[in-house]
Amino acid sequence: MSTIAITEKAEIEAIIRKCPYCMVGITDLEGNPYVIPMNFGYQDGTVYLHLGPNGSKVKMVEHHPRVCITFCEGHELVYIHQQMACSYSMKSRSVMCRGNVRFIRDMDEKQRALNVIMKQYTNNEFKYGEPAVRNVVIWEVKVESMTCKSFGLRPSEL
């Protein structure tokens, strides 16, 4: 089975749009890796994430703003020879992004980011109550580097 790099921006963004969530890797206060699934929005090379105002994740990212965000789609078990375990692979595509978190605090900017997040999941338009917007934490991650790969390809699919 083979792995190939995907460099076409439209194809990379299509993979991101297919994902119902992303995995966000951060560093905890002791310097250990900490990975969490999060809902997201993606627009123009920026990932938006939201979470509650309390909890350890906010403190972790205030201390260590560098993050790694992974999107993965299309999980399918494939093989070349059914009786040979080493010929099995998981066919999927993944995108990995790196950048620094910026906390969005401006209310209008928060609403704009929330609209980007909601657009990932629905085409409905929304209104937001002031307390809800005030109390949500929004992380903005401008993507500094992005890689994309397709895994588990049979020789005939290359």
The computed structural class is: alpha+beta
Strand segment count:
9
Question: What's the main sheet like?
Answer: 9 strands, antiparallel
Low-confidence stretches: none
Query: How many separate domains make up the residues?
Result: 1
Binned, the helix content reads 10-25%
- What is the name of the CATH superfamily? Electron Transport, Fmn-binding Protein, Chain A
CATH fold field value: Pnp Oxidase, Chain A
Order of helices and strands: EHEEEEHEEHHEE
Mean pLDDT over all positions? 91
Looking at the structure, what is the overall shape?
elongated
Q: What is the number of helices?
A: 4
**Percent of residues in beta strands?**
over 45%
**How far from one another are the termini?**
10 Å
The gyration radius over C-alpha positions equals 18 Å
CATH class label? Mainly Beta
CATH architecture level-2 label: Roll
Layout of strands and helices, then pairs:
Layout: E1 2-5, H1 9-18, E2 22-27, E3 33-38, E4 40-43, E5 46-51, H2 56-63, E6 66-79, E7 88-104, H3 107-121, H4 130-135, E8 137-142, E9 145-153
Antiparallel strand pairs: 1-9, 2-3, 2-6, 4-5, 5-8, 6-7, 7-8, 7-9
